[in-house]
Design brief:
single chain, 626 residues, mainly beta, 7-stranded mixed sheet, 6-stranded mixed sheet
């Protein structure tokens, strides 16, 4: 009785397993080549519509028509409404199309497709790519309706579900995102075709708009690993080490198949495969190989399925790669380092090639590895060796690259003064070099006549450059505004500022612009800026008019007589008392007045004069003292 109950339980379990709805997922083992693909074609014109019976939705074409709720189109355009404007999913397609669906207001089936040519008692993987067409930021009031698609694999009658699963809610995104979904199912005895059904789990409205592309069916079986006797899953070998031969072992994990039959295949490009006659064991010994070659094995549970690509799977690929020696690295140039104590030499190599650095062209010491740059603080020549990242194949030669460290030209900034109206020679003060002044001159020296900051870039024989700055200051010439006589003093007034010096003979200079206690006469006034510029000369006749005289007969200041009038062409003098009475006048250059009027001495008092000397007139008063 217990055995009967146990058998009944097993029967129920098997029936339940056949009718249960599997969750979405992909083949956990190896897959075969695709036995069915649907990419929906290419081209700029919409369509064609799906075959009759494939969908209950209405087909519309682009232009003024839009795929409203319950409609679909086949198009390379997705820029309807406010949807994403994006391309299909199929890699490499030009104007590739996709199946564009605007889901109905109520959940329903929108795709039925019969898949034929399958094998009975065989596991398969179905997969498809889906895209939510509505951006997260859209014109929908509130949150856009997500897409939610149910996939079902049914028997050819459409009554028995072999596998099913739903995507769940796929919400809107900021940018278009394709997502892949899959189902794994197993055909039963006598089943060689199935029906793929896609249903809309959500409601229509603002959202629930999707695109579908790249529907694929392929066999699903064990994970079949291929390795050689040393457990390598590939061989990389340098061209100077060929020929090479190895024994391959195919190892299934028994996750799906209970038994295994084999057919080894060979390829020269990893894309196009050829059966190897008679190689039907789990092991295979390759011939001696001189070129890159790929191997894999087709596997099925029974011999009749082995020859049918719709029923078998293929193992992982074992690649025997013959790697050529790399060319020597390409030097990026010898390096001159100016003014630094640390830098690097560099080379370039193709992708997949590494570089090691040595201190000699052959043998020597490894300085650093796996870098195209070698950093150093030492002068010298260093050698770059190329080797492939696969198999470590080494270049026949090493590339020499030199580096030399030099000091910058030693230059000193300078400051010079020059006199207004003159020029000055500026020098880079560094011989045997090339020169470039900021005004474009290329000589060591330049002659300039304007103040400012001058710069020169000096490049020495080593190619090292440095810049010198020369600050040139102009010393302005003095502008003599006027020279006055202040009794016996001469007072010089200049119109501009500067460190001026003053002289009466051009040799001895003083800082003060006043020359004191001088006799009247003809003088040359010299004014200069410091001691580097030629002086400015000014001719001046110094007229000294006594401020008082004492006609008392002691021989000192006994008469009133102006000094310094002799150089002039004309001279006249008039003397008045305080009532403006004319007391004396004369036009003699030897004029002298003794303080009398009509032969009688005048009293002590102040008297006034009016002197005309050439074009100049002087007025004032003096005192007669007794």
């Amino acid at each position: 009785m217990l055995k009967i109950r146990y058998l009944f339980f097993l029967v129920l379990l098997c029936l339940f397993a056949h009718t249960s709805h599997a969750q979405l997922g992909f083949c956990g083992g190896n897959s075969g080549d695709p036995i069915f693909t649907e990419t929906f074609g290419t081209g700029i014109l919409d369509g064609p519509p799906l075959p009759p019976g494939t969908t209950t939705y209405n087909y519309v074409e682009g232009g003024p028509l839009e795929p409203n709720d319950g409609n679909y189109t086949i198009s390379s355009r997705t820029n309807y409404f406010d949807w994403f404007d994006t391309t299909d999913h199929t890699p490499g397609d030009v104007n590739g199309k996709s199946f564009i669906v605007n889901a109905s207001f109520t959940a329903d089936t929108f795709f039925n497709r019969s898949i034929t040519g399958l094998c009975e008692n065989t596991s398969y993987e179905f997969s498809a790519w889906l895209l939510n067409l509505l951006p997260r930021v859209s014109q929908c009031p509130g949150t856009p309706i997500p897409i939610n698609v149910k996939f079902e694999i049914l028997d050819s009658t459409g009554t028995q579900v072999l596998a099913s699963g739903s995507t769940g809610e796929i919400n809107s995104t900021n940018t278009p995102v394709w997502n892949q979904f899959g189902l794994v199912f197993t055909t039963q005895v006598g089943q060689t075709s199935v029906i793929l059904r896609m249903s809309n789990n959500g409601n229509g409205g603002c959202g629930n708009d999707l695109a579908i592309d790249d529907i694929v069916f392929r066999t699903c079986g064990d994970t079949i690993s291929v390795a050689n006797s040393t457990n390598d899953t590939f061989i990389d070998i340098c061209e100077d080490e060929i020929p090479v031969s190895t024994t391959l072992v195919a190892t299934p994990d028994f996750s799906v198949f209970q038994s295994h039959v084999y057919q080894w295949q060979v390829s020269s490009d990893g894309e196009n495969w050829t059966d190897i006659p008679g190689e039907n064991n789990s092991t295979y010994t390759t011939p001696s190989l001189n070129t890159t070659t790929f191997y894999r094995v087709q596997v099925a549970e029974d011999p009749i399925n082995l020859a049918n690509s719709s029923c078998n799977i293929v193992s992982d690929t074992f690649e025997v790669s013959v790697i050529p020696r790399p060319d020597a690295p390409v030097s990026l140039g010898d390096v001159t380092v100016c003014g630094a104590t640390f830098d690097s030499v560099s080379v370039s190599v193709p992708e997949g090639v590494l570089v090691n650095w040595y201190d000699s062209p052959v043998g020597g010491t490894l300085l650093t590895s796996n870098t195209t740059d070698y950093e150093t603080s030492v002068d010298g020549t260093f050698y770059a060796e190329a080797l492939t990242s696969r198999a470590g194949c080494i270049s026949n030669e090493r590339t020499a690259v030199s580096i030399a460290f030099f000091d910058l030209p030693v230059l000193t900034d300078e400051q010079f003064s020059f006199c207004e109206g003159e020029s000055i020679m500026l020098s880079a003060s560094f011989p045997n070099a090339t020169y470039l002044w900021d005004a474009g001159q290329t000589t060591e020296e330049i002659n300039v006549s304007s103040p400012g900051v001058y710069q020169v870039t000096v490049t020495d024989v080593n190619g090292c450059s440095n810049t010198k700055k020369i600050d040139l200051i102009q010393i302005d010439r003095p502008i003599i505004e006027k020279v006055n006589s202040d009794h016996r003093d001469i007072v010089v007034t200049v119109a501009n500022e500067g460190g001026f010096e003053y002289s009466l003979n051009g040799f001895v200079y003083q800082q003060q612009p006043v020359f004191e206690n001088l006799l009247g006469g003809n003088y040359t006034i010299f004014v200069r800026s410091e001691d580097v510029c030629d002086p400015v000369a000014f001719q001046f006749i110094h007229i000294v008019i006594p401020r008082f005289f004492t006609p008392n007969g002691d021989g000192i200041n006994d008469s009133f007589s102006p000094e310094g009038v002799q150089p002039f062409d004309t001279f006249s003098i008039r003397i008045f008392d305080r009532t403006s009475k004319l007391l004396f006048q004369s036009s003699s250059f030897d004029f002298s007045w003794n303080g009398t009027f009509n032969g009688r001495p005048l009293p002590e008092s102040d008297y006034w004069y009016r002197i005309q000397v050439g074009e100049n007139q002087f007025t004032g008063h003096f005192t007669l003292k007794r």
